[in-house]
Specification:
The protein is built from four helices and six strands. The chain is of the alpha+beta class. The protein has one domain: Nuclear Transport Factor 2, Chain: A (Roll), CATH 3.10.450. Strand 3 and strand 4 form a beta hairpin. This is Nuclear transport factor 2 family protein.
């Protein structure tokens, strides 16, 4: 995966084009982050479709390293509340580990994201937040 490939992926994510995002993935990927696991196109659309009703989320890539087997990204994830996402709403979706956010509030988080690749497609994803 090249930086240009990843920039296209991030642009699709920022545009909420979940089908294009999922096209970068292998047939049965494993995305695991913050106690959420996504393995299908439908799960990706369900999770982000829910979340993005409440927040505008954008990824800004600061550093990228890529090879045939791994893409490593350091960047800023900016989350802006567009509707109140309360602890009760999160708990109702089994997402109590996520931070609530009020409409108009902005959270910025530095993330390190590793994408394991196979045959040019993303096979698994892991990420960590940095305080």
């Amino acid at each position: 995966m090249t930086r240009e490939d990843y920039e296209r992926y991030a642009a699709a994510f920022n545009a909420r084009d979940y089908d294009t995002v999922f096209d970068f993935y292998a047939e049965r990927p494993r995305m695991a982050f913050f106690k959420v696991e996504i393995t299908t196109r439908e799960q990706l659309k369900d999770f982000y479709g829910f979340l993005h009703q409440f927040v505008k989320e954008t990824v800004t890539v600061e550093r990228f390293a890529g090879s045939d087997e791994l893409a490593a990204v350091e960047g800023i994830v900016r989350v802006e509340g567009i509707a109140d996402l309360t602890p009760e709403i999160l708990a109702g979706r089994g997402l109590g580990q996520f931070f609530p956010i009020a409409k108009g509030e902005v959270q910025e988080m530095r993330q390190y994201i590793h994408y394991h690749l196979k045959d040019g497609k993303i096979e698994s994803v892991g990420c960590a937040l940095v305080a």
